[in-house]
Amino acid sequence: MRILVVEDEHKIGSSIKKGLEQENLAVDLVFTGLEGFDLASSEDYDLIILDVLLPGMDGFEICKKLREQQIHTPILMLTAKGQIADKVEGLNSGADDYLTKPFAFEELMARVRALVRRPKKTIGSVLKIADLSLDTLSYLVKRGDKIIQLSAKEFALLEYLLRHPNQTLTKDQITSHVWSYDADILPNTVEVYIGYLRAKIDKAFPEKISLIQTIRGFGYRLGEK
Ligand code: CA
Questions:
Q1: Do residues 75 and 134 share a domain?
Q2: For a designed S-S bond to 90, which of 13, 61, 95, 196 qualifies (C-beta 3.0 to 4.6 A apart)?
Q3: Tally of domains in the chain
Q4: Reduced to 3 states, what is the DSSP secondary structure of residue 46?
């Protein structure tokens, strides 16, 4: 999952970025409204965390313009304490949720999870295909009863694949949802990580059907075939 954070207070922005990255999320951080609007309208994010008071273009304006452009990425607004009118304006401008500063990181994560990690057609926080399961809260990954240890990036990659089961995903789609804008991506990075994942979830279980399929010339697909 990839998140855009637009926050002009560098200290707050950096600590949000750091905290989200520790939760295996890819994060792009920008400090001005214009940069935020540019990235939000050109890149494909899973969530945008948007401060209200920003230089250049404020959070409400960004939100309104994105919705006008039919960009429906979930938006979490950060508002300053006491600005009760913000709440109303935030929701009117198309934001999905808002959080009042100062906030505890746990509170931010709870909102982020509700907006981004709300699994579709699943029970609780668990994403599943065949006998492979991934718990987005406990980070437990299992095939059958066997626990699989994944690195942070492998986990993020598998989570993205599990959210789009039986769909062919291109390398570009995978890159833009699993890696940050400023990450060091080589032409074969996705291939390499798919290889790591395949070794752990398929090759480690030779008696079971393989779940990761390579669609030559297109990309990858997670499914039971
Ligand atoms: Ca601000």
A1: no
A2: 95
A3: 2
A4: coil
